[in-house]
Amino acid sequence: MPHQRELATAAALALPRFVSSTVRFHTAVADRLGVTPAELHCLQLVHSGATDSPTELARLLGMTTGAFTRMLDRMERARLVERATDTADRRRLRVRPLPDRMAELTDLYAPLAQRLGERMASFDRRQLTALVAFLTDGETAADQEAATLLAGDDEAAREITG
Fold first, then answer.
1. Using N-to-C axis directions, what is the helix angle for 54-61 and 65-77, rounded to 10°?
2. Predicted structure pTM score
3. Is residue 34 within 8 Å of 27, Cβ to Cβ?
4. Which CATH number applies to 14-108?
5. Where is the HTH marR-type domain positioned along the sequence (predicted)?
């Protein structure tokens, strides 16, 4: 049985490989859909319910609103999304995924989701709790480091991430 330190080292070494494999998978999905990885990321944000606000999507993607508008134009031409008027405030637009392309996206993700789901089904409650905590903490850390890099200095990044 490996010691704690050996397991921590193995995990630290496996993480970048996992991230690289995930990036390769997402790139392959984007290629299959005929979109860029950034467009796929936007589609996933909209589909997941993270936000449907063009301004917030641009922020989450690290894009200017102008660059995001051009990307959204391409996504509409590819029949991935549509712009819709906000029913609560007609001055605002919302980004909505189109159902036929979402079914295609679901089909592309299904085999990987099934494999990962089967693996997680073998985890006990303690392991799942640790996994969720690690992923949540990792998301926060990655968001903070991305903000630092985008802002160019630590003080500006702290303002961005709160």
1. 110
2. 0.79
3. no
4. 1.10.10.10
5. 4-140
